[in-house]
Amino acid sequence: MIDTKNFTREEFNCRCCGENRMHQYVIETLQKVRDEFGHPIKVTSGWRCPENNAESGGSTNSSHMAGLAIDVEVKSSFHRYNFLLTAMKYFDRIGVAEDFIHIDMDPNKTSKLLWLY
Q1: Phi, psi of 55 (to 5 degrees)
Q2: What is the pLDDT along the chain (117 residues), one digit of tens a residue?
Q3: Span 9-116: which CATH code?
């Protein structure tokens, strides 16, 4: 995986083992969101090994373990709203939690979904 304009490979590493099996096109798509959104995006979770996924409370078939999902932190309500408007142009699976937004592009799962945690 190569770095993009605003993201480094390390931002997507597993928090417990340091491995990274993210798909490059997912990172490149996040960069498109960042370019259009125009504000910093903090990655809070990228690729996860099975152990990290379990500790994080992820589902047993989490798209994070397939390298197809990213959780991001967007601080203000204003920025969260605008981030969501932009992200929906590029990602068709979005989950909104109180302290993060999950975006993924897993072709093996139902598309065009928006859910709350």
Answers
A1: -65, -30
A2: 789 999 999 999 999 999 999 999 999 999 999 999 999 999 999 999 999 999 999 999 999 999 999 999 988 899 999 999 999 999 999 999 989 999 999 999 999 999 998
A3: 3.30.1380.10
